[in-house]
Amino acid sequence: MPGLADVERVALACTLCPLSQGRTTVVFGEGDPHAQLMVVGEGPGRDEDLQGRPFVGRSGQLLDKLLQEEAGLARRQVYIANVVKCRPPGNRDPLPEEIAACRPYLEQQVELIAPKVVLTLGNFATRALLGTNEAISRLRGRTYPFGLGAVLVPTFHPAAALRGGGEVVARMRADVVRAHQALERAQPGSHPGPTAEPILAAEPGLEVP
Ligand code: URA
């Protein structure tokens, strides 16, 4: 079985979709390869494309702050990846065929890191990993079983939270708390284990453009 470095080596030379033609760098992902928490975003923006690292712009600052404040986790303690590894031009949404072409990289990252909790940011990551077309505003607010004994916690994309203001940030914050609770439940010896039941009742949907 290839390791994370092998998968990264292949991804760095990838030309499977047209996004490869416009990229400066492939943003494979970074963090602790044994992290219990994996964060999955949508795709690199301008700053990420230039630096080759995920979530280094304003969205990343909000993500780092919420992870630290609500889960006590520094960036180096989690693993952060995106659904697509190359920047869509002008920050447009990734196309279904681009997501499909990049999917094996994300799947291998999830398999090799084997996180206990996956925090998905926004529609694209949540839909890709839950296999649904529902909107994030309807999906967030609870946990979902994911893989073998893990749970998935959907939340808003930090860029949407920055646009949406305090109320959206507060819901994102509540989701990070939810992810932290799920991590604590997943510690060996603790109980009960990861659950398919909502930790908190889903809050009423809040549409974020
Ligand atoms: N937005 C994302 O979805 N991913 C990044 O890496 C940066 C911004």
Notable characteristics:
alpha/beta; 209 residues; Uracil-DNA Glycosylase, subunit E; 6-stranded mixed β-sheet; binds uracil
SSE blueprint and pairings:
Elements: H1 4-12, H2 19-22, E1 30-31, E2 37-41, H3 46-51, H4 58-71, E3 79-82, H5 96-113, E4 117-121, H6 122-130, H7 136-139, E5 144-146, E6 150-155, H8 158-164, H9 166-186
Parallel strand pairs: 2-3, 2-4, 4-6
Antiparallel strand pairs: 1-3, 5-6
Helix pairs in contact: 1-5, 4-9, 8-9
The structure holds uracil.
Question: How many extended strands?
Answer: 6
How far is the first residue's CA from the last residue's CA? Answer: 41 Å
Biggest β-sheet: count, sense, barrel? 6 strands, mixed
Q: Quick check: average pLDDT?
A: 91
Name the beta content range: 5-15%
Discrete helix count: 9
Order of helices and strands: HHEEHHEHEHHEEHH
Give the strand line-up of the largest sheet: 1-3-2-4-6-5
Low-confidence stretches: 191-209
CATH hierarchy: architecture:
3-Layer(aba) Sandwich
- Name the overall outline: globular
Report a brief summary of the structure.
By secondary structure, this protein is an alpha/beta fold. The protein has one domain: Uracil-DNA glycosylase-like domain (Uracil-DNA Glycosylase, subunit E, 3-Layer(aba) Sandwich). It contains 9 helices and 6 strands.
